[in-house]
TrEMBL record:
Domain (DUF5940): residue spans on this chain: 346-511
GO BP term, example: fatty acid biosynthetic process
Organism ancestry: Bacteria, Bacillati, Bacillota, Clostridia, Eubacteriales
Descriptive protein name: 3-Oxoacyl-[acyl-carrier-protein (ACP)] synthase III
Transmembrane domains' residue ranges: none
Residue ranges of every copy of the Beta-ketoacyl-[acyl-carrier-protein] synthase III N-terminal domain listed in the record: 254-329
Species this chain originates from: Clostridium fallax
Molecular-function GO terms, alphabetical: 3-oxoacyl-[acyl-carrier-protein] synthase activity
Length: 512
């Protein structure tokens, strides 16, 4: 069977300390419900600098400058162990500062919703002129606006402010007086997901293995909804992102599934390529302002800086089998069905045990598992523990229960079969897909034979169902293209059948 391949992956982070304060829902709800709280007074003293964000080891791992194995060897907590000589650019992408990101948001703004102050525009134009992906787009940034006009819009509550170090430098205007789906708050969220998704896709299509013109279809799998009062989630982030990047040959659509969205999208992309409908499909996701500083109160209580200060993004290119890149095993798909039940054991049986059993594989045959890959530095102070390790323990326990692993081997299973978490808690961003960049590299180098991507989603959050959700897929080493000369094509089969029928008809005529 000829499987599609993962040709490339890209990962980006955007350091957004001011957005933590002004756009993260933990902070916006606190400001609305308890405006004089000590938390709001303290938060500005617990924000990291851009240098600290770049030097944070999980962030360096996310963009490809450090392997997960190297991260695991470092002393924890990682926020106390900065990486010396850390670079904002990595093998898979970059960590962008907030001011440059405002410039990218403006470049992604199709309806002149963003206003930036004049001198600020000149500052970011100078910075972006040195950016490898954006230097050719700098001239598209028009002259900025007077700060007085921006202040007037923000004070009238018809725009959301954009800040740098607490100073107002711009705003996002509402697009409709009465439509809440087009208010300034929602449009800011949507412009952020669009711009961060575009940055990830730019790094995917940087000419090193892929170009914008190569992409035929885009699936965007974040957790935002684009629309107006008549169709709240009508879409389409995918085409909006593709337009920014210049994927003029692509169409696309949005796919949603809470944290499981990326895995659903990856499987859908694999099916589209395997069926022959498209040769190159990009799976893309931008990040989420709402989750910035989500656990900020717990971080401050523990005396640490707020670690949820980055917007995340990623892009993956799924292509026809080239005989080299790792294949997506479309015949080993795990799915949590409506009838499975929501217990942790039922979920893992559906996503791990059942698909592997169906393929004649054991849990121990998989080299690495990639469930929720949140950074434990973030989740442990909030009382959620080390989420990836918890998943590895449950998968190992399932292997023990099924007689595939000796109980004594459980500690080594947890260490050998999983990577430490290194992704931001941006919902869909840490869900399985962070392994793709490193996993692909390790398969190509011969260090791994396979890995399993596990996406899980909590559907109850939308208040439409109490059901859980999840899908999984195995990625493995490419055994090379089959010898086409030894294969019989559909046309050849038709010809052989026609010749056989012709011979049989001639035989019948001779008998008569």
């Amino acid at each position: 069977m000829d499987f599609p391949v993962i040709k490339k992956g890209s990962y980006i982070l955007v350091d957004t300390p001011d957005m933590v304060i002004h756009n993260g829902t933990t902070q916006t709800v606190e400001r609305e419900s308890n405006p004089d709280s000590e938390y709001l007074k303290e938060i500005k003293n617990h924000l990291r600098t851009f240098k600290e964000v770049v030097e944070y080891a999980p962030n360096q791992t996310y963009i490809g400058n450090m392997t997960p194995d190297q991260l695991a060897e470092r002393k924890r907590p990682w926020y106390n162990e900065p990486v010396e000589g850390a670079n904002r650019y990595g093998k898979y992408g970059e960590i962008m500062p907030e001011d440059e990101f405002y410039g990218l948001m403006k470049l992604s703004d199709s309806f002149d919703l963003i206003k930036l102050e004049k001198s600020f525009v000149e500052e970011i134009k100078a910075k972006l002129s040195n950016h490898p992906m954006l230097k050719d787009k700098v001239d598209l940034l028009k002259e900025g606006d007077d700060i007085a006009e921006i202040e007037k819009l923000v004070e009238a509550h018809t725009a959301e402010g954009l800040y740098i170090d607490g100073k107002l430098v711009g705003c996002v205007k509402r697009a409709h007086e009465f439509d809440k789906n087009l208010d300034a708050h929602t449009l800011l969220e949507n412009l952020v997901v669009k711009a961060s998704g575009a940055l990830a896709l730019m790094h995917l299509c940087d000419g090193n293995g892929a170009n914008p013109d190569d992409i035929e279809y885009i699936i965007e799998c974040s957790e935002e909804a684009i629309g107006d009062m008549n169709q709240r989630g009508g879409g389409n982030v995918a085409k909006a992102v593709g337009e920014v990047v210049g994927c003029k040959n692509a169409t696309g659509t949005d796919m949603r599934g809470f944290c499981a969205g990326p895995s659903h999208a990856l499987i859908a992309a694999s099916a589209l390529v395997k069926s022959g409908i498209y040769k190159n499909v990009a799976v893309v996701a931008g990040g989420c302002t709402a989750k910035l500083g989500m656990n900020g109160k717990d971080h401050i209580k523990k005396g640490i800086k707020i670690l949820e200060d980055c917007i995340g993004g990623f892009a993956v290119l799924v292509s026809e089998n080239d005989g080299v890149n790792p294949v997506l095993r479309t015949d080993i798909i795990g799915r949590h069905t409506i009838g499975h039940g929501a217990s942790p054991q039922a979920v893992l049986e559906a996503l791990v045990l059942e698909p592997l059993d169906g393929a004649g594989l054991k849990i121990t045959d998989i080299d690495k598992f990639a469930p929720e890959m949140q950074t434990p530095d973030i989740t442990e102070p909030a009382g959620a523990g080390d989420v990836p390790t918890q998943n590895y323990k449950m998968i190992g326990a399932l292997a023990v229960k099924k007689g595939q692993l000796d109980r004594k081997g459980l500690p080594s299973f947890v260490k050998e079969k999983g990577y430490p978490g290194f992704a931001p808690t941006q919902g869909h961003i840490p869900s399985g897909v962070p392994i793709i960049g490193h996993g692909r590299d390790k398969i190509l180098s011969g260090e791994l034979n396979n890995f399993m991507i596990i996406g899980k989603g909590s559907l109850f959050l939308g208040r439409m169902t109490n059901l859980f959700d999840g899908v999984s897929i195995v990625v493995e080493k490419n055994e090379g293209l089959k010898n086409e000369g030894s294969q019989v094509t559909k046309e050849e089969v038709k010809t052989m059948v026609a010749e056989a029928m012709k011979d049989f008809a001639a035989y019948l005529m001779q008998e008569n």
